[in-house]
């Protein structure tokens, strides 16, 4: 590239002025976009949202997920929730289908990774 093709900055920095104006304009747009994002974020993350809703789990299925993560057996879960072991198995089958997991361990890892339950 030849030197005569390079832009020359005048004594007063006249060519820099449009760049400064453009920079200020872009910064203003960025600030407005961030303010808009944060206002939308506060609406989307409203406290009424529950983690189980994201994956289509019922409240009872979510209770079963929590018990699985806590390490309970089907018998313990049935006793804790006052349901039969067969119902626990039915809930687990439904949960496995909805979350596309294949084992209790995979379910527990999925629940922790997707913050369906808190880490102990």
- CATH top level of the largest domain is Mainly Alpha
Order of helices and strands: HHHHH
**SSE class:** mainly alpha
In the residues, how many domains can be counted?
2
Which homologous superfamily in CATH is the superfamily of the largest domain? Winged helix-like DNA-binding domain superfamily/Winged helix DNA-binding domain
The fraction of residues in strands falls at: under 5%
Question: How much helix is in the residues?
Answer: 55-70%
- Reported by name, the CATH topology of the largest domain is Arc Repressor Mutant, subunit A
Properties at a glance:
120 residues; Arc Repressor Mutant, subunit A; mainly alpha; rod-shaped; 2 domains
Question: Secondary structure elements and their pairing?
Answer:
Blueprint: H1 16-44, H2 59-69, H3 74-81, H4 85-99, H5 104-113
Helix pairs in contact: 2-4, 2-5, 3-4
Walkthrough of the structure:
The structure is a single chain. This protein has helices spanning 16-44, 59-69, 74-81, 85-99, 104-113. It is mostly helical and 120 residues long. It has two domains: 3-44; 51-113, Winged helix-like DNA-binding domain superfamily/Winged helix DNA-binding domain (Arc Repressor Mutant, subunit A).
Concise account of the structure shown:
By secondary structure, this protein is mostly helical. The protein contains 5 helices and no strands.
């Amino acid at each position: 590239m030849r030197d005569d093709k390079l832009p020359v900055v005048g004594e007063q920095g006249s060519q820099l002025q449009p760049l400064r104006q453009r920079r200020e304009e872009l910064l203003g747009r960025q600030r407005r976009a961030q303010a808009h994002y944060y206002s939308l974020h506060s609406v989307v993350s409203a406290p009424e949202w529950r983690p189980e809703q994201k994956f289509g789990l019922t409240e009872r299925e979510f209770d079963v997920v929590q018990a699985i993560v806590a390490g309970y057996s089907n018998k313990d879960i049935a006793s804790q929730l006052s349901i039969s072991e067969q119902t626990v198995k039915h809930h687990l089958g439904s949960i496995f289908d909805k979350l596309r997991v294949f084992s209790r361990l995979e379910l527990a890892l999925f629940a922790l990774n997707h913050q369906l339950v808190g880490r102990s």
